[in-house]
């Protein structure tokens, strides 16, 4: 029941709302108020209702956004795909300035896709089999390595943070992990330590891929239990030798 009761300090009319609840519910609410920052039960109810309305509006906005995200991602996929093809197929014919512009377009499309996924709360979950997990946040490095291994007949999956990495590793295990050291959030050193502490992950070979000075990387090998490292700029033949040594893709 709602009825006009009085006016507030700004001379706005106030409507009082009576809520009928079981005695146990009333006692539960009262106890919560006593042990929280709310001054009165009325204050708790008002803020709870406001919180619910705001949350509902946010959910509705996300739902509306998700309805358009599919079409948007289709367009982004075309932009990303064609720019990648231009880089790979015509890199010897185009000038360096044009290649940089195309690369910028590719990077922007990837960033927009990440923003969309973040808004929608999308988690990376990959259940299919793949050969190599690349943990890297630099798009040019990702492009280089994925294309290189693709030509070798190997499948890859990429993540860019500890959270994404361990979400993926919950569902599928690679034959090799290539791990950048300088990442947003936890460093590659910390990620490697955690991988090597996990009973079902510790046998996976982990190699750092980094531009960090070799002396620092080498000093961290024992502590992190990493299996080795590759320094940027890469000698691609070293990856080829590792693939043969680990017999990746041989089955």
Task: Characterise this structure.
With 251 residues, the protein is an alpha/beta fold. The protein folds into two domains: 21-122, no CATH class; 132-246, Response regulator (Rossmann fold, 3-Layer(aba) Sandwich), CATH 3.40.50. The chain contains eight helices and seven strands. The strands form two sheets. A five-stranded parallel beta sheet has the order 4-3-5-6-7, with helices on both faces. Mean pLDDT is 81; it is low at 1-6.
SSE blueprint and pairings:
Layout: E1 2-7, E2 13-17, H1 23-34, H2 41-90, H3 96-119, E3 132-135, H4 139-151, E4 156-159, H5 162-169, E5 176-180, H6 188-197, E6 206-210, H7 214-224, E7 228-231, H8 236-246
Parallel strand pairs: 3-4, 3-5, 5-6, 6-7
Antiparallel strand pairs: 1-2
Helix pairs in contact: 2-3
Number of helices: 8
- Mean pLDDT rating: 81
Number of structural units classed as domains:
2
Q: What is the CATH level 1 assignment of the largest domain?
A: Alpha Beta
The CATH superfamily title of the largest domain? Response regulator
Strand order of the largest sheet: 4-3-5-6-7
Q: Write down the overall geometry.
A: elongated
Q: How is the main sheet built?
A: 5 strands, parallel
The overall strand count is 7
Structural class: alpha/beta
List unreliable stretches of 5+ residues: 1-6
- State the order of secondary-structure elements, H for helix, E for strand: EEHHHEHEHEHEHEH
Helix content: 55-70%
Termini Cα gap: 72 Å
Question: What keywords describe this structure?
Answer:
single chain, 251 residues, alpha/beta, Rossmann fold, 2 domains, 5-stranded parallel β-sheet, two-stranded antiparallel ribbon, 7 strands, 55% helix, elongated
